[in-house]
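Exercise: predict the structure of this protein bound to 2'-monophosphoadenosine-5'-diphosphate.
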Amino acid sequence: MTRHCFVIGQPIAHSRSPMIHRHWLAEHGIDGSYERIEVAPGEVPGFIARLRAGEFAGGNVTVPNKELVLPLLDEVSETARRMGAVNTIWREDGRLHGDNTDAYGFLAHLDATVPGWDVRTRTALVLGAGGAARAVITGLAARGVVRIMLVNRSPSRAQDLAALFPGRVAAHPWSDCAALVGASGLIVNTTSLGMRGQPPLELDLSALRPGTIVDDIVYVPLETALLGEARRRGGIPVDGLGMLLHQAVPGFERWFGRQPAVTPALRAKLEADIPGR
Ligand code: ATR
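Solution:
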């Protein structure tokens, strides 16, 4: 029997998740489908009822529904609970399970790109304080990064997020960024700045120490201005596409029972779809 899966959100037309999962379905010769479905926040309970009734094996949840689905599920992982957001749902023994694989995806890509990064990274600078920042900080904390400096346009949001990780995360004013750069072994941009169609991210990297890892979760363009500048200054750039690819792995495994791989062929397929590479 064909197993049907979905990604729900609004807007949903630009989601790249179908490209990833369909690649793996073909690679493994699995009888399955993965579709984008536009679901407005008010339609989420109705959609979850369809899932419960057996129409789908599971799927992904994206903006603006990640927080809304959480209370509608039977089992929610500790990670998703801590993040207050679910991005992956599956049915198991008639119950609906939810997890958040963003922190996993972020770490898996960092591990693959800069093996051993966690051994040498004690201090990190995180830009942004939204859902993505929460996932990144959860991941960094899990790997023992001792000091995480958080900077956000709206200081109160940074303070609220920092308060969830007492003793490890501290909020700093945006105006301190240039100095914080020199004190960081890892810098992560989790804001939408630098994305095509968004304002540029103006971050002074003149104090960047060579060998500092600079990770941008923006992947359109693939090499953002931040990553280009980091490369020129002897930093180690890590692009955002890998996080997208890796966060998809646990869901596919749950729905279809096979562990998929993030291969150069899959990456190339997604890269070819990114405008203005
Ligand atoms: P996500 O869940 O993808 O992290 P989000 O919760 O909307 O999305 O968060 C977006 C992040 O980008 C926030 O840190 C936001 O800053 P604010 O908390 O001050 O809104 C940041 N961001 C978006 N546009 C920005 C801009 N023009 N200048 C500075 N920061 C911006």
